[in-house]
Amino acid sequence: MKNTKLNVMVKVSILSVFAFLLMYFEIPLPIFPNFLQLDISDLPALIGAFALGPVQGVIIELLKNILHGVFKGGTAFIGEFANFVVGSVMVYTAGVIYQRNRTKKTAIGGLLLGTIAMSVVAVIINLFIVLPLYEKLLNFPVKAVVGLAGKVNPKVTDLNSFLVWAILPFNLLKGVFVSVLTMAVYKSVSPVIHKEIEENTQSAQNKIS
Fold first, then answer.
1. What does the pLDDT look like over 6-48, one tens digit per residue?
2. pTM exceeding the 0.70 threshold for the entire prediction
3. How far, in Å, CA of 79 to CA of 71, rounded?
4. SS (H, E, C) 158-184
């Protein structure tokens, strides 16, 4: 049992490092302001949530953001906090649904609901937590954020339109993109993640019997 727990911890650590490294690869999108760039750092956390459990997926999200805040920083952990909360909502939602019935259908359903939940939460925390913190701690006014978004999307004219036409669609797009990648790679990587855990569990059961 101890070997199994240790094995899970090692895999969570490895996936966390992969997720942290993927945060450095950001794709700018012309329809969104420069501070909203697409990355696939939630992919290892989703794989971990499906293979190891939703709690482990959330831990991967936490560790990757701690690493990012320590080694890159620049946002006083505000950006990392937002990334953790939003990513964890998607990862945990998808993971819980998939764990109940491990089928392709439930995986797709979990990812879909996770994407929707993530996008809604992103709007809420930006409105009440993230944007006010940027303004107070980093002296980056909300009006400046809205102005930058308005330059690439004329529909963004105030805070509400910024949330509706920038934050919401960006997270929906990100969720769909990461979900497609998860479905594409999970089947090939999950046997590697499960293998040693199953072997250690079987070994422990043999010793008990």
1. 889 999 999 999 999 999 999 999 999 999 999 999 999 999 9
2. yes
3. 13
4. CHHHHHHHHHHHHHHHHHHHHHHHHHH
